Amino acid sequence: MTKIINIILSGGVGSRLWPLSRKHRPKQYLNIFGKKSLFQLTATRNISLCDRLTVIGNTDNFELSSEALQEINIQEYQQIVEASPRNTAAAIAFAAFSADKDDILLITPSDHLIEDEEEYARSVNEAIQLAKQDSIVTFGLVPTKPETGFGYIQVDGNNVLGFREKPNLETAQEFILKGNFLWNSGMFCFKAGIFLEELKKYQPEVYTKSEIAFNARIGDKLPLRESMDIPSISVDYAVMEKTDRLKVVKSNFKWSDMGSFESLYNYLKNNGHPTDENGNMVIGSNIHTEFLGIKKSILVVTEDAILVLKREKSQDVKKICENVPANLQ
After folding, report:
1. From CA 214, how far away is CA 226, in angstroms rounded?
2. Angle at 106 between CA 101 and CA 112, to 5 degrees
3. What is the pTM assigned to this prediction?
4. H or E segment and range at residue 152
């Protein structure tokens, strides 16, 4: 019997949210979203829409995933532990190899904040119906502003005309005016067998070496040597931009990839976190703080690091994270 399986990709580090997000506790495991983490919200959101759960993690975070699921009383799930991250094409291939060929996989990153559950469920059910017809489905979000931190999908109804990389502000504004560009959500839906067919067609080396690594796994852990042979390539480049089976579901649920402090600022502010009259915010400290001569800034405090940034520079935090001492990364 065909199953609907939620595949949660949990391997990201979230370096743009440093110093809150660290390698030992990435952003998807921070319990700052109504006392739950983004990972937990993802699992909870999809549990009523799917029959099973599979978590693709790595040796650095699989225990965090297990702890997070136990906290929300999810006991039954499959876990695939990568020895070394090889990007999303391989991760999704592992999930597909673990399923029956007619099972439908709902691929969801673990670090997205999604609101409006009813519209989300409608979009997922539309995607499942398209997947049953052997389509490879991506989710496109109706943009609410010219965002430079997201990729875009150019669409015509359910048809995809093309993908665009993260644009500059002028190009993003052009996309909004044209009206047929959607934010690329990084969520997908397809039959396991159909995905593997397309991966084998367009990236045969990724397919073959992912299969070798998967078949050499011990329990739920993949082997390092075989894993390192797999080319590291995103699923967008490997399959989505090449396949002729691609369809898009145009979605209107409120969505953020929580990929920057600007996103986190907006979420916290909308949920009652205090700001001053100049739009400044303190995250991580209850110490009384005053901002003098500074506007639209964020002070981030942890026990071993402090970050001060202008909100419009949120996308550049990754550069800082790359240059701090290894023990603080």
Report:
1. 9
2. 155
3. 0.91
4. strand 152-156
